Structure formats: C-alpha cells, structure tokens
C-alpha cells in the first residue's frame, strides 16, 4: 500500500463485508437487511482505514486486515444503532439516511445491534493464527475496548453527564473511553498479528497515539456539530447542545476547542516521531491523520 488510497481501501472493505454477510444463513431476512442497512450504509470508515494502514506498516496480511476491520466496524455500527435509539440520543438521521429504528422499528434495531456485536467476535474466529495465547489476547483486547472497560462505560458516563457542566478532565475521560478506545482497537489488533507483537514499547506508543487521535476525532466532531449543517454532517447538527451535553465547544468555546485540537495534534506528532525513530514508515499514517483532522463531516 505504497500509495494510500482512501477510496480503494473503503471499496475493498465494503466488498469483503458484503460478501461475508451474504455468506451468513439467517432464518430472519429482515434482521440481515437491518444489519446490512446499518453496517454498509456509507460512513467514513476511519477505524477500518487505520486497521489497514497500521497493518501495512507492520506487514500484516491484507486479508487478515479485512477481518479485523469488519470486526471493529461491526462494533462501531452496533454502537451507532443503539446511540440513536429513543432511550439514548433519540436521533432520526444517520449517514444522511433514517436511523435504524426509524427504518425498521425499535425492536429490530436493538436486535440488529445485538447481532452486530456478536458478529464482531465471530469474524475474529476466522483469523489465520496458530498462536492461541495471542489469539485470546486479540479477542480480549477488542472486548475491553468495546465493553465495560471502554466504549460502553464511556457511553454511560456520557449519559450521566447530561444537564451538567463537566470539567475538561471529566470530558476527556468520557471520550477516551467512548471514542478513543475503539481507535486503540484499530491500532493494536493489527499490531498483535505482526512479528513485532511482543514489543511492549511499540504497543505503548501505538496505544497513546490512538488515544490522541480518538480525542482529536471527538474534538473535531464537536466543532463540526456547531459549524456544519445536518445535510453536510449526515446527522442532526447541534444535537449535543439540544441534549444539554457538555462538549469541547460548550466548555472551551470554538477557539478553545481548536486550541485543544492542536494540543492533541502535538501529541500525535510526538508519537509518530517515536515510530519513525524506530524505523517505521509513517507516511500513509500521517496522511490518514490529516484526513481525520481536516474533515468537514
């Protein structure tokens, strides 16, 4: 992957994902339709792209990256379905289309999310590895990032923070878990399939880098939420303010949020410099990071 191509990576991922879903024989065609609607319904595929980029950096087989990317995007899609439910964010627009519960009803949307969560761990069973100890580590790492030690706890803290003015450190804790932990999965899972998997210093750098990228992603989201239209975003604009949630913008203001973004970008540059010093080519990684920072939706 010498020349990073966002378009070709996304196309390859979606072809693999569509083929994988078509190979599943479910007694409920409606459930499969709801799963496909949410998983293959567009999206930036940022987490998947990081899987392929880190996989390329550490010389991981491209076909194995397909599986890791699908597992992570399945978790992400399930989280979006549940986030949009009336009991959570109560949103009607996702990726420019009606949310899953608007399209299929609440019950089917909940079940589609449940199925996507279990699908993620089913996909991991297809990884080509004879190292059982490392295979268990991969499964556990994804579970930790997506569950009570990661994303789900972050979502709970986000709910508990509604109608409160949170301190910056409290907001960072929420989004380190709710957002950044799944970026950690995108970095660490391909690393664990590489020949460098036992080098703890590299894993530590990648983990720190992923957290900073995840926080940058969220800060940028908060800025876009108040500066872009629903049409541009593909989801309801200014939703956090209407839900009375603390955001980087509500706490720091637009300019303060942009300054916080630059602080995290400095951390990102520090960690990528560390990887370069260890002899890794970060060209494609840095290119993808710029896409995350400079996006307008």
Automatic annotation (TrEMBL):
Enzyme class, spelled out: transferase
Record keyword Magnesium present: yes
Cofactor or coenzyme needed: Mg(2+)
Secretion signal span: none
A Pfam family hit: polyprenyl_synt
Transmembrane segments: none
Keywords of the record: Isoprene biosynthesis, Magnesium, Metal-binding, Transferase
EC number: 2.5.1.-
MF annotations from Gene Ontology: transferase activity
Family: Belongs to the FPP/GGPP synthase family.
NCBIfam families, A to Z: FPPsyn
Protein name: Polyprenyl synthetase family protein
Annotated source species: Pseudofrancisella aestuarii
């Amino acid at each position: 992957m010498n020349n990073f191509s966002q378009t070709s990576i996304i196309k390859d991922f979606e072809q693999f994902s569509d083929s994988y879903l078509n190979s599943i024989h479910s007694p409920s065609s409606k459930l499969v339709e709801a799963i496909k609607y949410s998983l293959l319904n567009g999206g930036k595929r940022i987490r998947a792209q990081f899987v392929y980029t880190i996989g390329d950096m550490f010389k991981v087989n491209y076909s194995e990256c397909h599986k890791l990317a699908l597992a992570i995007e399945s978790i992400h899609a399930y989280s979006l379905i549940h986030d949009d439910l009336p009991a959570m964010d109560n949103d009607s627009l996702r990726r420019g289309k009606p949310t899953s519960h608007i399209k299929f009803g609440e019950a089917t949307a909940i079940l589609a999310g449940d199925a996507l969560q279990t699908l993620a761990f089913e996909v991991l069973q297809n990884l080509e590895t004879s190292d059982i100890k490392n295979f268990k580590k991969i499964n556990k790492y994804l579970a930790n990032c997506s569950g009570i030690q990661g994303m789900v706890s972050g979502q709970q803290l986000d709910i508990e923070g509604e109608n409160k003015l949170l301190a910056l450190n409290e907001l960072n804790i929420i989004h380190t878990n709710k957002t950044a932990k799944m970026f950690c999965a995108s970095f660490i899972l391909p690393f664990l399939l590489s020949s460098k998997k036992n080098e703890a210093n590299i894993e530590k750098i990648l983990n720190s880098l992923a957290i900073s990228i995840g926080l940058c992603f969220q800060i940028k989201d908060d800025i876009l939420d108040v500066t872009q239209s629903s049409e541009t975003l593909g989801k309801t604009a200014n939703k956090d303010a209407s839900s009375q949630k603390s955001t980087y913008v509500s706490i720091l203001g637009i300019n303060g949020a942009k300054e916080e973004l630059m602080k995290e970008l400095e951390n990102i540059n520090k960690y990528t410099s560390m990887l370069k010093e260890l002899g890794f080519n970060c060209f494609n990684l840095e290119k993808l990071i710029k896409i995350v920072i400079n996006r307008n939706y």
